[in-house]
């Protein structure tokens, strides 16, 4: 791998991110999700990983509505171009995203995914048990972003764009 840069995505990155997501997933659903989240202003943070000026990874952190007044984001989707996988790019995007969300005052981040992968970042199903979401279950995980911060409690609503995923 050559020069890696992780930065916040901008409007000019939308097309490349869409191409990346379409190639990383079996359908356009994730690319369409991110486009709808952008359009609605429902993204707390969007990061891209570039190698030599080409986008090879993307991490999107949508805002979740909390009935307990918490600042909560989710990680969905995370994608790395096929040729760049298993080189730490996804992990670098997740780490940077959690740092940025913490700096921006978020209390929690949730993810729906493989506990073996996301556990290394501090996510766990046990930490998500106090929340109520449409995705409750063993693959719904949370990580606290502030030491001694707000407890995991209350209902969380995902942006309307997620309804299209079925």
Describe what this molecule looks like in 3D.
By secondary structure, the protein is of the alpha+beta class. It has one domain: 3-Layer(aba) Sandwich (Aminopeptidase), CATH 3.40.630. The chain contains 5 helices and 9 strands; from the N terminus they run E-H-H-E-E-E-E-H-E-H-H-E-E-E. A hairpin with a 5-residue loop joins strand 3 and strand 4. Helix 1 packs antiparallel against helix 2 (29-40). The radius of gyration is 15 Å and the shape is globular. It starts with a strand and ends in a 9-residue tail after the last strand. This is N-acetyltransferase. GO terms for molecular function: acyltransferase activity, transferring groups other than amino-acyl groups. Pfam families: Acetyltransf_7 (PF13508).
Structure summary:
28% of the residues lie in helices and 30% in strands.
Beta fraction: 25-35%
- Give the second-level CATH assignment, the architecture: 3-Layer(aba) Sandwich
Sheet of most strands? 9 strands, mixed
Low-confidence stretches: none
Radius of gyration: 15 Å
CA-based shape: globular
**What's the domain count?**
1
CATH class: Alpha Beta
Straight-line N-to-C gap: 37 Å
